[in-house]
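User: Hi! I'm working on a homework problem where we have to compare a predicted structure to a textbook description. Could you give me the structure for the chain below?
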Amino acid sequence: MFATKRETVPDAMANPPLPLRRRRVFGLLTRRERWGISAAGWLLIVLGALAVALIVLPNLYSFLAVTHRVEAKVLVVEGWVHPYAIHAAVEEFRTGRYDRIFTTGGPVVGKGGYVNDFQTEASVGAEQLKKQGIPGDVLQMVPTRVMGRDRTYSSAVALEEWFSRHGLHVKSINIVTEGAHARRSGLLFEKALGRQVDVGVISVPSPDFDAGHWWHYSQGLEDVVQEGLGYLYAKLFFYPRKSGTQTSTDSG
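Assistant: Happy to help. Predicted structure tokens:
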């Protein structure tokens, strides 16, 4: 006879309870739910990292040991390189259409940290080039007194200053250097010489290990790790400054 009002009972499944929150120590600490990576998630991350490593690592040395020639009349040789790279520089000069060859570098550090104030990497490199037949009238060493972490950039700045002092308007250069140091050398010379100079680089591979399997050799590992970190520093954190290069007098 009488219509009864139907009472509704809240469905616990339709309205799940809020995350449990408990307070302890007078409300100073709170316990709540949080999301975390599952075992399957960690496995996927590890497998992804391994896949990236398998793709990147075999090509890392070739990325650092880049060879990219440009059309240039000036060849620059980093004076610290080993004799096999000096020989490659001589062949490059003879087969290329170069007019001048320059050597760069700072003080030579001997055993026990002894620094020779009269001998630089630039002068050592120049002497080796002369012994292999490079004429003295086309050879010029450009030493610097700066040594340490920024030696490559300081050598590049010294070269730029030499060009300016002697009124030599250089539009492009090729740099001869060793192995994985090539990309960093090219980058730092570009920073020092500016956009008006086109910079090419020639990487001479080391005969001490197989560049295609560099990770099998201690020397290969050392070169890639050291030069890789050096390149990242130069690319991301190095801010050039040209003061204080302390270029030596023009001799040789």
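For your comparison, note the following. Helices lie at 39-64, 83-95, 121-131, 151-165, 182-193, 218-236. Residues 66-236 form a domain with the Rossmann fold fold (CATH 3.40.50.620). Good luck with the assignment!
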